[in-house]
Amino acid sequence: MQYEPIKKSLGRFISGSLLMRKALYAFLDLLLLRTWHVNKVLKSIAKEFRGKAHVLDAGSGLGQYTWRMGRKNPGWEINGIDIDLDHIEDCKRFFSQTRLSGRVGFETGDLTLTDENEKYDIILSVDVMEHIKDDILVFSNFNKALKKNGYLVISTPSDKGGSDVNEEHGKSFIDEHVRDGYSIEEITSKLISVGFNDVLARYTYGKPGNISWRLSMKYPVMMLNKSYFFFIILPVYYFLTFPVSLILNTFDLHTTHKSGTGLLVTARKR
Question: Measured between alpha carbons, how far is 71 from 95 in angstroms, rounded to an integer?
Fold first, then answer.
């Protein structure tokens, strides 16, 4: 299945309206389970950075996480970087018209080529590493770009059914993925190998979260890959399924999972 063309179509649809983009961000915050887990971790980290902090949204996409971090933390200066020029230009247009324009910036860039030294207090990377083959190089770049005691936060599929792959030679649900997912041992060892400390990886998208993902993401993406006509019926679809997803997301957020299709990873540079 192709996911990026759908994101681009959605971006073009909302690019001309401030209200629609803000409404989309609010909807995604509620609908997508990964935002629940990421926001919980960011809220905890924010207690250490109540004043100023420099933050990198590494793979900023539609700008959802930049928007939330900027609004929740008025002292944070945030730089969004993404390899997709269309996403970056859309974000520049939107954020230039908001109160965040003075402390939020966006640029096109390749995370394998970034070369910054001790610039950021926090680096956030959500649903990015599964798209990058040379992950160790990116992890090394992240470590170099972080200040001492800075945080790295990663959300990515696990090898326990992430990308909807449930067998050894299964095919990823999302064609753009170069890996189906990480094991906790793999991503932990890779981060430690480039200099990170205090690496903590835990499963997300347990049984309730996996059902929620199918309702909120898999089935809609499958429909839209068949025809964009389904954009018309999506409001009705989500009207019926949204309450169920909210309940499932709540259970997933407050449960410790022995296994799950997602991973949430935090690490520090000491």
Answer: 12
Specify the pLDDT at position 92.
94
What SS3 state is found at 61?
coil
Residues with Cβ within 8 Å of 73's Cβ and at least 6 positions away in sequence, in order, are 46, 49, 53
Give the dihedral sign, CA 190/135/46/115: positive
Alpha carbon 21 to chain centroid, angstroms = 17
The pTM of the full predicted model, rounded to 2 decimals, is: 0.90
Mind listing the pLDDT tens digit for each residue in 123-132?
999 999 999 9
Could you read off the pLDDT of 36-54 as tens digits, one per residue?
A: 999 999 999 999 999 999 9
The mean per-residue pLDDT over the stretch 144-158 comes to: 97
Q: Is the dihedral angle over the CA atoms 6, 12, 15, 20 positive or is it negative?
A: negative
Count of Cβ atoms closer than 10 Å to residue 58 Cβ: 27
CB-neighbour burial class of residue 135 (10 A; exposed 0-12, middle 13-18, buried 19+): buried
Token pair for 150: 């800075």
150 sits in the region (left: phi over 0; alpha: psi -120 to 50; else beta) called: beta
- Chain length of the chain: 270
Asked if residues 66 and 38 have their Cβ atoms less than 8 Å apart, the reply is no
What amino acid is encoded at 164 in this protein?
D
